[in-house]
Amino acid sequence: MIKTAIVTGAASGLGYELALLLAKDGYNLILIDIDEMNLLVAKQNILGFSTIDVKLIVKDLSEHNVAESIFKEIKDTPIDVLINNAGFGLFGTFSDSNWKRELEMLQVHIITTTHLTKLVLDGMIKQKSGKILNMSSLAAFQPGPLMSIYYASKSYMLSFSEAIANELKGTGVTVTALCPGPTKTSFQDVVSNGSTDNKITFNMACPKKVAAYGYRGMHQGKTVLVPGMFNKLLSGLPRFLSRDRATSIVRRIQEKNRDI
Prior knowledge:
Elements: E1 4-8, H1 13-24, E2 28-33, H2 36-47, E3 54-58, H3 66-74, E4 81-84, H4 99-127, E5 130-135, H5 148-167, E6 173-178, H6 187-192, H7 207-219, E7 224-225, H8 229-240, H9 243-258
Parallel strand pairs: 1-2, 1-4, 2-3, 4-5, 5-6, 6-7
Helix pairs in contact: 1-7, 3-4, 4-5
């Protein structure tokens, strides 16, 4: 029986790489993104090597109740995998940054992701199987001055994923939080859009490798995935340093990247 997977933020970056992996394993795909042109390119690339069905949904995930709108389009399709990948960053002090853009980030990272998970989860529980992969970040493990809302939203996603993963034990449904460090995707361009240039180059990972790591871990039912030994070390720093010290270190790293 052919299975179906949803991927948000599928037009490029980690979402696209994860969609490729799903296609290679024979999953029918529902790809969601605001970028219609690149979403069409992604579909063409996938159909170049696969005969699966690929449905495209062009939506702005920062809109109110967009998860419900998406679910109305797919509610008759059993979902086996949900990958909540869509997201973006914004650099700058909280007092100076753009509230409209921050509100959009909170909507994408927290509200839409949580709502879509809730809507899809009921069917997974009823069919006694399903896998959910939520895109968190290395940023989830400590506060992040100069990207305060981004770090806080990714911390929410990590905590939320761990909590419901525990609740779902024994149901056949697993939840995984993927927490990559800086990865070479279009995310860097979005971070710097309309703000101080802050294209991070330190400890930059390959999106194909990060996606493959997350994909394997999701299928293994792991709850938290941190790709890379250096990132694992960084994720553990708040356990050994005071929160104030860890926050100060992040601030210096952010300021250094701003000056690159």
